Amino acid sequence: MRRDVFQAIADPTRREIIHLLARRPLNLNTVAEHFDISRPAVSKHIRILTECGLVVIKQQGRERHCMADLGRLKDVADWAEQYRVFWTKKLDALDAFLSKEQKPAKHRK
Prior knowledge:
Blueprint: H1 5-9, H2 12-23, E1 26-27, H3 28-33, H4 39-51, E2 55-60, E3 63-68, H5 73-108
Antiparallel strand pairs: 1-3, 2-3
Helix pairs in contact: 2-4
């Protein structure tokens, strides 16, 4: 099952895992050492991140190394961008309105 990238970033533990792996690849045990949850719970988070395409696991001998693949975060950035444009327009309009309203008040004094 391919999960949605939005599901991955919805969880704070998964966001922290992404943050860790964005710096450098780590093996599963090293990732688990950063959290106060069980290793199986960390493995479940890693599996979800892998299903979302945000983490790639490479087998190196007996160890599995996790690497961030942040290309899928572009989906999130594109989605958020539409709202940034929307709110920028709304706030610019509010600024223009308030500036216009303040000018007559200054002249009355």
